[in-house]
Write a structure and sequence with these properties.
CATH architecture of the largest domain: 3-Layer(aba) Sandwich
Structural class: alpha/beta
Oligomer: single chain
Helix content: 40-55%
Length: 1077
């Protein structure tokens, strides 16, 4: 009898903690592969820590323990025995208490190796990758070598600080769990480190092993890794050494034998294994020669034939466990008792084939047979419980995997090779269905689980099994899209779209509950007949999106029908086609509407005779586009490039409407400067449109408004419509048309609020720049054209502007594009006017004078300090006025310090350069438009022109509309060499083709505004090449504005078309960039 008891174990451990931890290892089943000699005096086995450690124990004939050893790194440091030895001795005691060592060990060995291969896939399935984060820190004012530290964080969804790294590394060795709080427990058995993290983890484990050897936790004698002429290599250190020696030759003393010129190679070993029959059992052995053995406990490195092999992970996992089991078996022979033969052949052989050189005795090989595998599953329903019976069928052998007995007797002379891979896959699917086992069958009893099983699992089972259902089970069907039907039609009486949707067998009231369940993010809807309607069904989700996105009625579907505003016709049609909702049938009226809007050129409209020969082809298309939108009650933006004749297209449209439908006034609202331009353009092209200009004082306007019913076109200005809107609200107009519609870009402005009160059959907007700074400006114009089409302003900001501008969301941008595309017509000069001459653009950088530069730098320093303080005290948003004032001052200094500094007698570098440019240009016969934002600067330029006897004309906001027209006419007729224009007053609406050079004296934030100004000269009728010059002051805010423009141009305004740019409002970082010196 072996003398093993608690007192002896405590004595040899010399530490209560080592004893307790050893007992924990034993109770946790960490001891395996226990082997012994015939006399039961020599024992060896494996104890699983973070690695497998080999443990041995020797007893005398009286049962006294003579010696013990362990390959763990801690064994060398203790004067007592380690926890692994304690666990091993307790296991030996357990075996002894069972009576017969031999039979029990053989059976357990076979059982252990079968369970290893059976559970391996399961372990891989439940393993979870763990995330790691490292932080290196260096403490100041400490000795070299005592200042550098490493911190570690680990976790799954979130990271947790490893507060006790030594305890964490110990858990990797022992396999014990560590709690990091209520939401995360680290388990070495479940959590796996990524390959890129393993190098760091092994590095830390190496440090820990060295610490364990050099320092004693329990007050024992300290050891050291340095042993005179030798250095101790712990398991991790040994692997590191082998890795460093890869490719080198070295000598070795292994297991008492000396070897020379050993090399390390990364390759698998070809193990020779053989299986034979012995009585009714099987035996398995390894023939690998005397000099083959593992050098590391996990089998990563093997010694064989004067070589060290680093074998692959696959061979380590699939072959080494079996190799170890065989080598630790009695006499190196693994006995597989009769009761385990089938499991061994089915579980172990498929894993090692093609990985070893396997020889099978012919009698055994003949006994192994592998018939085709089939699986039958029968499902029944009892109330709200699903019952199942599963049968694995191998020809005449029927196996109930949830019962311990087979349904037919088995021929013991045969060894069935079962298809474990397919069996495991079926088990996996049943686990997904959350089935439980009862009386040799399976069941589920929760509605949500039943739905998951029928919807997700049964289709997979049908691919690999024969499925049979009882009649009661068939009631649990799934409703799919084949049960759906729908239609869309244009109700001309209501002038709305009607979209109906039905699910076979579901009434309209139940349909409302279906969509309510979708909104509540439920997985399915249980119908009255007991069947299930999956709510993640693509078609159903698309219909729900139609209801959410296009529906106008709060209840969305009423009696299975939903009304949708006709504005959404094109977008809805595109949605149906894109999503493939083929069950939705479209009526002829709807199809005709879609066809007409998409292809207006195919419709025959009569162009007024007097204009037929004047209109260009693209203008004829624009006329048809306006007519088609008008026909269906839609609005639109005519966004043609400057100078392409938007006014002429509107005149043609209104003349056609009058002749087709009879007289009815249309209202045109334009900037003050363009009111009379409209009148002149109408008179130029037709005498059949009666025009009323409403200007003058309040009483006079009131009288004019009373008579507007007698006119075809009523023209007024934005400032006057604000004052007279109450009078206009009494009338119904055929059309309301906004010229330069960017005047309502601010949806909160009086302009926007006023024009949106006007009643008309159709609404149109004319503008070359539907958007200058933000997408909400486009929304404001659409809110005038077709209220509600682009949602409310709040919803538009959330759904479109924020994702597109801040998130660069291409999908949302495409969505917005699809919605607005039918209602914006945009043509560029370069695309439609091939005969238009070239436009040459040039940026000229000029330097400041010495005195000017001193003033600029002084102001920059002062303003920067003031603004930084302002932002710090009030915040960025409340500092906008201060910032704008500072930027304006710097821009004015770039132009000329005399703009705001009285008695400044110095020069301006930019003005000097301008003087030279103008002289050269005039000498070359050029006529020039010169734009500036600062009227004071224009005054300074006037003085310079007069000094040089250069004739000029001048236009700013103080010039009355009638006089503006005279100035334009005179300049185009050849009066004056230079036309000085305030950018704000003359940047739009003027036709100045008499010029062939445009100079922008100072840059503006938005390049689109500069392009509008340039287009005063570069437009229809221009015969000469137009040269555009932009003057930029070197090393100043002007250069930064130009660079900011370039940077912003990366956000191309695809919302309109290529060629427009979207400049969002400046961020705090961009403001800081402008004020950098």
């Amino acid at each position: 009898m072996l003398k093993i008891n608690d007192r002896i174990l405590m004595d040899i451990a010399k530490s209560y903690e080592s004893y307790i931890r050893g007992r924990q290892y034993y109770e946790n089943g960490r001891v395996s592969n226990v082997k012994f000699n015939k006399e039961c005096t020599r024992f060896k086995g494996i104890v699983r820590g973070n690695e497998n450690y080999e443990v041995s124990a020797v007893f005398d004939g009286m049962g006294n323990l003579l010696s013990s050893s362990c390959t763990c790194p801690a064994y060398a440091k203790y004067s007592g025995d380690c926890k692994h030895i304690i666990a091993f001795l307790l296991k030996i005691k357990e075996f002894e208490s069972m009576g017969a060592f031999g039979e029990r060990i053989d059976k357990n060995s076979a059982k252990n190796i079968i369970e290893y291969y059976r559970d391996k896939d399961e372990e891989e399935k439940i393993s979870v990758n763990i995330e790691c984060e490292y932080e290196f820190s260096m403490k100041p004012y400490q000795k070299v070598g005592e200042s550098s530290y490493l911190n570690l964080k680990i976790g799954e969804d979130r990271l947790y600080v490893v507060k006790n790294i030594k305890g964490f590394l110990r858990s990797l060795e022992t396999g014990e769990d560590i709690n990091f709080g209520k939401n995360f427990k680290f388990s070495p058995q479940i959590h796996k480190f990524k390959d890129e993290d393993m190098g760091i983890i092994n590095f830390l484990r190496l440090l820990y092993e060295n610490y364990e050897i050099n320092y004693s936790e329990y007050g024992f004698k300290k050891e050291n890794i340095f042993r005179n002429q030798k250095v101790l290599l712990t398991p991790i250190a040994l692997k590191s050494f082998f890795s460093l020696m890869n490719g080198k030759k070295f000598n070795a003393d292994i297991m008492g034998r000396k070897y020379e010129n050993i090399t390390i190679m990364e390759d698998d070993l070809l193990f020779n294994m053989k299986i034979k029959g012995r009585n009714s059992d099987l035996i398995m052995g390894v023939d690998s020669g005397e000099d083959t053995f593992p050098l590391t406990s996990d089998g990563e490195y093997f010694f064989h034939g004067n070589q060290i092999y680093r074998i692959s992970k696959e061979q380590r996992e699939k072959v080494v466990p079996l190799y170890n089991e065989i080598m630790h078996s009695k006499n190196g022979i693994l006995r597989i008792p009769e009761q385990y033969k089938e499991d061994f052949i089915s579980e172990v052989l498929p894993n090692i084939k093609n990985k070893v050189n396997l020889s099978i005795d012919k009698k055994v090989e003949d006994a192994i047979y592998s018939p085709e595998f089939k699986c039958d599953i029968y499902f029944d329903r009892q109330d709200e419980v699903i019952l199942g019976k599963v049968s694995f069928i191998y020809e005449d052998i029927i196996i109930n995997p949830f019962s311990s007995r087979m349904d037919v007797s088995v021929n013991k002379e045969r060894i069935l090779l079962r298809d474990r891979e397919k069996e495991k896959y079926i088990f996996k699917l049943l686990e997904e269905g959350d089935f439980r086992v009862i009386d040799g069958g399976i069941y589920i009893d929760k509605e949500e689980k039943i739905f998951d099983f029928i919807y997700e699992v049964i289709p997979k089972l049908q691919e690999c099994c024969n499925i049979y259902y009882s009649e009661s089970f068939k009631g649990l069907s799934i409703k799919n899209s084949s049960y759906f039907s729908g239609g869309i039609k244009l109700n001309k009486k209501l002038n709305m779209l009607e979209f109906n949707f039905e699910i076979d067998g579901i009434d309209s009231k139940e349909l409302e509950q279906v969509f309510k369940s979708i909104k509540e993010k439920k997985k399915y809807f249980r119908l009255k007949d007991g069947s299930f309607l999956p709510l993640d069904n693509k078609e159903l989700m698309d219909v729900r999106n139609i209801a959410e996105y296009f529906g106008t009625d709060k209840r969305k579907f009423k009696n299975g029908t939903m009304t949708i505003h006709r504005f959404n016709s094109i977008c809805l049609n595109n949605f149906l086609k894109e999503k493939g909702l083929n069950f939705v049938k479209e009526d002829d009226n709807f199809k005709k509407l879609v066809q007409d809007i998409n292809e207006p050129n195919d419709i025959e409209y009569e162009i007024p005779a007097e204009l037929k020969g004047i209109l260009r082809d693209y203008q004829k298309f624009g006329f048809k586009w306006l007519k088609t939108l008008s026909k269906y009650g839609f609005g639109g933006i005519l966004a043609d490039d400057m100078g392409l004749g938007k006014t002429l297209q509107i005149i043609t449209f209104l003349l056609s409407e009058k002749r087709e439908k009879g007289p009815m006034p249309s209202l045109i609202i334009a900037p003050t400067s363009l009111v009379y331009n409209w009148e002149e353009e109408v008179r130029k092209f037709t005498s059949d449109l009666k025009v009323l200009i409403i200007v003058g004082n309040k009483p006079g306007r009131k009288e004019l408004i009373k008579s507007l019913g007698d006119y075809d076109m009523v023209i007024t200005s934005y400032p006057l419509i604000r004052r007279d809107i109450d009078l206009y609200q009494k009338f119904d107009f055929r059309c309301c048309i906004l010229d330069e519609a960017q005047h309502i870009k601010n949806y909160r402005s009086l302009n926007a609020n006023s024009v949106k009160k006007i009643k008309a059959n159709n609404y149109f907007a004319l503008t070359g720049t539907p958007m200058e700074n933000s997408l909400i400006e486009l929304w404001s114009i659409f809110d005038f054209l077709m209220p509600g089409y682009l949602l409310s302003n709040r919803k538009f900001l959330e759904k479109y502007e924020k994702p597109i501008v801040k998130g660069q969301d291409e999908r949302t941008l495409d969505d917005l594009n699809n919605r607005i595309k039918p209602f914006i017509l945009r043509r560029l000069k370069k695309d439609v006017l091939k005969e238009l001459p070239d436009k040459i653009e040039q940026r000229i950088v000029v330097d400041m004078t010495k005195e000017q530069k001193k003033i600029y730098l002084a102001y920059l320093k002062s303003i920067r300090g003031e603004i930084e303080k302002e932002i710090k005290d009030k915040g960025f948003n409340k500092s906008q006025i201060k910032i704008l004032a500072g930027l304006t001052r710097l821009r004015q200094i770039c132009c000329h310090p005399a703009i705001f500094i009285e008695n400044y007698t110095g020069e301006s570098g930019k003005l000097n350069s301008l003087e030279e440019i103008l002289k050269d240009a005039i000498d070359g016969g050029r006529r020039i438009l010169l734009f500036s934002q600062f009227t004071t600067m224009l005054g300074i330029i006037k003085t310079m022109l007069e000094k040089n006897n250069i004739s000029y004309m001048y236009l700013d906001g103080s010039v009355i509309p009638q006089e503006r027209g005279n100035l334009v006419r005179e300049f185009n007729e050849g009066v004056g060499k230079v036309f000085l224009i305030s950018l704000k007053a003359g940047g739009t609406g003027l036709n100045l083709i008499g010029a062939d050079m445009v100079i922008h004296f100072d840059p503006w934030w938005n390049p689109a505004v500069e392009e509008q100004a340039t287009d005063r000269a570069y437009r229809i009728g221009q015969k000469n090449t137009v040269q555009v010059i932009k003057l930029v002051t070197k090393g100043t805010i002007e250069e930064k504005i130009f660079k900011l423009q370039e940077r912003k141009k990366e956000i191309i305004d695809k919302v309109i078309v290529e060629g427009e740019t979207l400049i969002s409002k400046m961020s705090q970082d961009e403001i800081s960039y402008l004020f950098e010196s």
